[in-house]
Amino acid sequence: MAAAMIRDLIGSLQAALGALGRYALFGARLAIETPRALLRFRLVVEQVYNTGALSLVIIMLSGLFVGMVLGLQGFDLLERFGSEESLGTAAALGLLKELSPVITALLFAGRAGTALASELGLMRATDQFAAIEMMAVDPVRRIVMPRFLGGVISMPLLAAIFSMIGLYGAQLVGVQLMGVDQGQFWSQMRGAVEHGDVMEGVLKSVVFGIACSLVAVYEGYHSLPTAEGVGRATTRTVVISSVSVLLLDYMLTAVML
Fold first, then answer.
1. Cα 213 to Cα 116: distance, rounded to the nearest angstrom
2. Does pTM top 0.70 for this prediction?
3. C-alpha to C-alpha distance for 54 and 230, rounded to whole angstroms
4. What was the pLDDT predicted at 236?
5. Which of 20, 30, 143, 163 could form an S-S bond across to 100 if both were Cys, CB 3.0 to 4.6 Å?
């Protein structure tokens, strides 16, 4: 029994390392193709719209409610120490450094990531990639790259919008509902939040955008050409992207601190 468990564990580890290697090779191929893909500006802009602009509603609603909850919880905590006027600082640091990039990435994986994976998987299932290759066109360069770049560009923009709406939600609850002084709310925030805090959130959102977009296009492009294969690729996209975001968040936070 113990030997069988060890063999299964070793086999799972080998499979995970093999999958990581395949992701790395595919990511390297995308990195090589990036300069050429940026010349196709119209295709990239279309994918920024599909992955970014079409995700604005869920990002803005989520940012508003997360900011409002942060305002309530932050006020309750700070009131116990007599520091209610620091609510703006706490909300800004929590949103900019942690909540905005992480929650935006999770929402992105659930909405845009699944859309990318299912779209590419359907193209694989209907032999559209084969047809493109018959015309001597590289499907990775023509189809996959604009979608990958669209996701990478959209993620920091969505995270910034999440932060702004979240701060408005925290201000709405803290100032309008709980009675925190508006001047202290914003002045303490401006005095405490530094450039490095903002750049930490930007860096995280860029890394998460690369990770989520890479997972989505890889799973969609390499999905089995069946309805079941497309469904599995979509499911794997959400699961792998979510776990990757949380793991990378810990690693980046540990390094930056």
1. 8
2. yes
3. 22
4. 92
5. 163
